[in-house]
Specification:
single chain; 374 residues; alpha+beta; 2 domains; 40% helix; 28% strand; globular
């Protein structure tokens, strides 16, 4: 998918629609962290996994907060056209990839913008004077303030960018010459306009621990970012990594697809989920559903392979899904699909009981914000 205008892309050019969209995602990202906690309580995620996932989900919420400031005055007369949020209305329901590229560029220049803008207090004071003195709505000043707040969010950092480079955490020492690490990274997939999070458990048999290895660690980071494409199967990514680094052994690789987001107002979904949302007739803030897919690949065994005249290296043999030969197609040991949705759409989903949803995990958000697993 290119970044040029696309029939699948929708511009939110009306103030209410734009603000409601961002409010919806503020609610959804908040629920996502609760889903991660719920799965940890069920024993499906470790404490370390939850911590890593929560960090990326929090970053994602900060990204939406920054974009909501950027487009706060969309649809209002601000004196000049400044654009509107472009979202993928068919494939993902999320902002298009180019929005994050522009945001990253803005972040590089945020300090310069802030130095040349009045402070928040000064802008608020001017707004009061405009309202009281001229009895006018200070739209241009409101726009200036929204842009000030946008650049301040970018300066705070810790956002979910188009590329979030690999980080490494120690898990355990296997013996004196072998350590286990968790390597994690994330991307905003340009092909499907969705945030994607990767977690890989690696055993390191090198002489220098991976995080301290000035040669291998930069190479690992570059290699993994180059392989972070939604179109690549996990087994392809893991095999490539295993072959590229003789003393790094990928034991477990997971990929989390956050989304798509479905909404009867914003997206043009097809199939059962459209009927569910239309029949639910849920009020604002409850007319949505979010898919959450986890692909997992595990090493089944190790085989030794000759490397040169006098040495051998370990090569991982990965377990693929044995059911119906699907492992060859998916490139994973298992794939787990989940859907997160409020109570009313869930009730309609249960009543309709459409085919294909029996094996999907349902996480239901109660009016009080509690997440229940079905």
């Amino acid at each position: 998918m290119t970044d040029s205008p696309n029939a699948d892309h929708k511009a939110l050019m009306e103030t209410y629609a734009s603000r409601r969209y961002f409010k919806k995602f503020e609610t959804i990202t908040d629920h996502l962290t609760r889903v991660a906690a719920t799965r940890a309580g069920q024993g499906d995620l470790s404490h370390t996994d939850v911590k890593v996932l929560t960090r990326y989900l929090t970053r994602l919420s900060f990204t939406f907060k920054a974009l909501s400031m950027k487009y706060l005055l969309v649809g209002r007369e601000t004196g000049r056209f400044f654009g509107s949020l472009s979202m993928d209305a068919v494939e993902s329901g999320f902002p298009v990839f180019n929005e994050l590229l522009v945001m990253a560029n803005d972040a590089q220049q945020a300090r310069g913008h802030l130095e040349n803008m009045p402070s928040v207090e000064a802008l608020k004071d001017q707004m009061v004077r405009k309202i009281i003195g001229d009895r006018e709505i200070p739209t241009k000043l409101q726009f200036a303030l929204s842009q000030r707040l946008y650049y301040e969010e970018l300066m705070r950092g810790d956002l979910f960018w188009a590329q979030n480079h690999p980080e490494v955490q120690w898990i355990a020492n296997m013996d004196d010459n072998r350590r286990r690490f968790l390597v994690h990274w994330a991307v905003y997939d340009s092909q499907i306009n969705l945030p994607t999070i990767y977690l890989m458990e690696v055993e390191d048999s090198g002489r220098v621990a991976l995080p301290k290895d000035e040669r291998r660690w930069p190479e690992v980071q570059m290699h993994l970012m180059g392989q972070s494409l939604g179109g690549l199967k996990l087994v392809t990514i893991a095999h490539g990594f295993d072959r590229s680094f003789d003393d790094l052994h990928p034991k477990r690789l997971r990929r989390y697809h956050i989304g798509p987001m479905y909404s009867s107002v914003y997206t043009q979904q097809n199939g059962p989920i459209r009927d569910v949302l239309e029949q639910a007739r849920a009020p604002d803030g409850e007319d949505w559903a979010l898919a959450w897919t986890v692909e997992e690949l595990e090493s089944e065994r190790v085989e030794e392979e000759r490397a040169g005249w006098f040495s051998k290296v370990e090569r991982e043999i990965f377990a693929l899904d044995p059911f119906s030969g699907r492992g060859v197609d998916t490139g994973a040991t298992r794939t787990e699909r989940s859907i997160i949705l409020p109570q009313r759409p869930f009730q309609v989903l249960e009543e309709l009981n459409p085919p294909g949803f029996a094996s999907v995990n349902k996480f239901v958000v109660s009016p009080s914000g509690q997440v229940l697993s079905y």
